[in-house]
Amino acid sequence: MEAARVVAGELPDLAHLPELPGRGPGADLLGRGAALLTDLHVDLQPSGWRLVARSGLDERRTLDFLSWDLDAAETAFAGYTGVLKVQCAGPWTLAAGVELTRGDRALSDAGAVRDIAAALAEGLGEHVREVRRRVPGATVVAQLDEPSLPYVAAGRVPTASGFGTLRAVGVHELLDGLRAALPDGVPAGVHCCAPGVPFELLGRAGAAFVSFDLALVRTRDYDALAELVESGVHLLAGAVPTNGVTGAVRDTARPVRTLWRNLSQPPEMLAQRVTVTPACGLAGLSPDAARAALARAREVARALYEAPEEER
């Protein structure tokens, strides 16, 4: 409830359903995402989450966490009329992190990957409908969290034994998985705070927005990011550090302006096409530090709106 109230108070225009992984298994990224897989079930093993034949205690715990979070959001966001973002692990991160019944990673089985993507689209769509029911004034958008996507594409996901790596997944297969997981009728995007975000791939997959750690963007990414902007994809630039807010607002805003200038985009469009966010999750921060990070994101956004070009 405290987390939901912090979000509602600090983010009046683009709130999100908070996640608190520190509560333990079932509140973590993989467990929470796996719980949304319609007609697929998971259980927690010593090696991690595993697909199983039927629902058990571990899966019910994940659903309880989600239900409690929805109860808190319904109270904290009562009367809310802005954009409300829900997020869960994407199909490739789930496939790279969840094991098959026989013990290897789901990523090793193309059929299992297809099943995960389809089940995720259905489950996430139902989740969005439930959020809309509980917060009827909100415009709900969905975000697929894909921290493992660059490693899947590069063939750097280790096998269950740890003695080898799984094959690199080709572009067309990656596209099929992402497209299949995006729920129908819901504005949806992708978040990846790992190095080597495949920006061009995400644009081809149909993402409405792309969220990334601004500090990890390299010169070679500029062309792909510019193409995203020109095709109408919204950028969520992770400019606020997630290890605690330091420095002045102008120091946090400077890299955003620099990126926009390097994309050769008109300054007056910056505040309309870019949303300022924390670089990644805030789970490692105290409530006060998380509140400060969200407040800094809002302050930087205001500064970019009032002065899109670099202050002299």
Number of strands: 9
| Topology order in helix (H) and strand (E) letters | HEHEEHEHHEHHEHEHEHHEH
| Overall helicity | 40-55%
General form: globular
Distance between the termini: 42 Å
Q: What is the number of helices? A: 12
Strand order of the largest sheet: 1-4-5-6-7-8-9
Which assembly state applies to the chains in this document? single chain
Please tell me the overall pLDDT: 95
Q: Compute the CA-based radius of gyration.
A: 19 Å
| Proportion of beta-strand residues | 15-25%
Based on secondary structure, the structural category is alpha/beta
Uncertain spans:
none
Q: Main beta sheet: strand number and arrangement?
A: 7 strands, parallel
Description:
The chain is of the alpha/beta class. 44% of the residues lie in helices and 16% in strands. It is built from twelve helices and nine strands. The protein has helices at 2-10, 29-34, 57-76, 91-97, 110-134, 149-154, 171-181, 199-205, 222-230, 249-262, 270-273, 287-306; strands at residues 14-16, 41-45, 48-52, 83-89, 139-145, 188-192, 209-213, 234-240, 274-278. It has a seven-stranded parallel beta sheet with strand order 1-4-5-6-7-8-9. A two-stranded antiparallel ribbon has the order 2-3. α10 crosses α12. The chain is globular and about 55 Å long. It starts with a helix and ends in a 6-residue tail after the last helix. The mean pLDDT is 95.
